[in-house]
Amino acid sequence: MKSKTFFTKSKILLFVLSMMIYSCSNESMMPQEDIDNAVNSKMSLKKNADNSTKFHFTTSLKSSNEVPPNDSQAAGVAIVTINKEETMIHYKLIVANIENVRMAHFHKGMAGTNGGVVAWLYNNLDGQPSGPSNGVIAEGYITSEGVIGALAGDMDALIEAIRNGEIYVNVHTQAVGSGEIRGQL
User: What sections of the sequence does the record tag as coiled-coil (predicted)?
Assistant: First the structure.
């Protein structure tokens, strides 16, 4: 009986590991449309299940959104949620086909214009190449202490700018220091 239980547990463990490997390898090769669809379905499920958030924003990160545009094949998605009290912003950056990401920020500026940094999302300024990135590169929270630049310390102003479409997510790389992919919130 003991060997049969061990055999069954081994099969279950092998199945779980196989699914994890398949999921990870499959996720890193997703085209932009599939990433968008996955994010949208996850966000709608989260919206129904989680009453602690007030607003949800997603944006596709593309090289064609940059000013000026570039020909990078990189892509990504930024998911942003604001809590009910409007005191905290949660963010998650998912990228594909991008190399040596140096930093990522929220910038204040309308689509088609460049603007100043108002919050850090990712920092790899130590000079070490990060190599290829496929998947989540940054996830965290922004509070008023993390709001910098023109909106320094003013969470209300940052949230209002997000609602008004005045904030964009910019992912900077070693190859394109001004930003390789970008998306307007």
Answer: none
Global pTM?
A: 0.73
Residues 100-147: tens digit of each pLDDT: 999 999 999 999 999 999 999 999 877 677 889 999 999 999 999 999
> Tens digit of pLDDT for each residue in 4-46?
544 445 444 444 444 444 444 334 444 455 555 545 544 444 4
Q: Give the residue-averaged pLDDT of 78-95.
A: 97
* Token code pair at residue 118: 């108002």
Residue identified by tokens 């204040």 is 108
Distance CA 69, CA 28 (A): 24
As a whole number of angstroms, the distance between CA 149 and CA 24 comes to 37
Could you tell me which of 14, 9, 11, 16 has the C-alpha nearest to residue 1?
A: 9
Exposure b/e, 120-152, CB count within 10 A at least 16 = b: ebbebeeeeebeebbeebbeeebeeebbbeebe
Which amino acid, one-letter code, is at 174? Q
| Residue 98 near residue 173, CB atoms below 8 Å | yes
